[in-house]
Design a protein that fits this description.
- The chain has six helices and six strands; from the N terminus they run αββαβββααααβ.
- Strands 3, 4, 5 and 6 form a four-stranded antiparallel sheet that branches. A two-stranded antiparallel sheet has the order 1-2.
- Helices cover 55% and strands 23% of the residues.
- It has two domains: 31 residues; 98 residues, Band 7 domain (Tetrahydropterin Synthase, Chain A).
- It is rod-shaped, with a radius of gyration of 26 Å.
- The chain starts with a helix and ends with a strand.
- With 141 residues, the protein is α+β, with helices and mostly antiparallel strands.
């Protein structure tokens, strides 16, 4: 083997190693992508973009009292900041929704309440959207 063939073999080997390294970097970056796992948000992203509301005590339509607290999940940091600023609007929305419910409605319709609160909050949001509303505490008296 002469020097020219040796140089060619070394260049080809170097090019192959370089291409394999680039492929490895792309694979590692895709695997370590913390935003999504199979198209879903990671729990770290959800926690980072969540806001716990204050506990709210109010009465239902039939005179029953309820104490309730929610965790509101948004689609980004700016939206999460806005949710915290709009807590008074959230409380107003929640009080209006609960004022029309009876004890039975409340027990059976908690998921519908979460959806209604999410939709009404999204109507007033300007810096993103609310993706989920979770009930984290509830007491019915």
């Amino acid at each position: 083997m002469n020097m020219s063939n040796l140089k060619k073999a070394m260049l080809v080997s170097l090019a192959i190693i370089l291409i394999m390294g680039m492929i490895a970097v792309v694979i590692i970056l895709k695997i370590n992508d913390s935003k999504t796992v199979d198209g879903e948000r990671s729990i770290d992203d959800i926690v980072a973009n969540s806001h716990d509301t204050a506990e709210i005590t109010t009465d239902l339509d039939d005179g029953t009292f309820v104490r309730i607290q929610f965790r509101i999940i948004s689609d980004g940091k700016e939206a999460t900041k806005e949710v915290a600023k709009r807590e008074f609007q959230f409380q107003n929305i929640l009080i209006k929704e609960l004022a029309t419910m009876t004890e039975t409605d409340f027990k059976e319709g908690l998921a519908e309440l979460e959806v209604a609160v999410k939709e009404k909050l999204n109507e007033v949001m300007t810096e993103g959207t609310i993706t989920d509303v979770y009930t984290i505490k509830k007491i019915l008296q």
